[in-house]
Task: inverse folding
């Protein structure tokens, strides 16, 4: 296997797997204070576009990497949104 | 311009520009509580690998997109690290 292919695979693995510790941290601490909802909204849209791009090009590695990233980024987006709404509802109820 | 190229450009723009609101939020609030240092360490490494991948392939769009993402992701990583160290030093000093 060419070294350039290895670099590409390592890059795809890192930029995909990187979101796992962020999801775990939110699940463990329930803390989403510093997280930007705008970032994850725009990023998730971008990954969705990369997924579409990969499907049109029938590029399986690109499809698989972006499918996993989409699930993880959407998880961070959903968890952050849910936590923020809960905090706000509690404040309103108090 | 082919629609597929437009999808690729839109995807690259979103997954690059997405980090700007995260950097601005940290600068505005100084709050990095929910942010995972492991995520940004692995993600920044991954973007660095994508940059190397683009250089080897002499792919200018890939080089430019990943260069900007690298700067932004490294900024979030650096700001988060700096803020965490400050908080810890204050706790030790107290």
Result:
């Amino acid at each position: 296997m060419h070294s350039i292919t290895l670099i590409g695979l390592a890059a795809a693995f890192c930029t995909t797997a990187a979101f796992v510790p962020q999801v775990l941290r939110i699940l463990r601490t329930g803390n989403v204070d510093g997280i930007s909802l705008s970032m994850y909204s725009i990023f998730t849209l971008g990954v969705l576009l990369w997924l579409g791009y990969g499907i049109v090009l029938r590029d399986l590695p690109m499809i698989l990497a972006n499918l996993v990233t989409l699930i993880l980024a959407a998880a961070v987006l959903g968890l952050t949104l849910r936590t923020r709404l809960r905090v706000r509802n509690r404040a309103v109820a108090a």
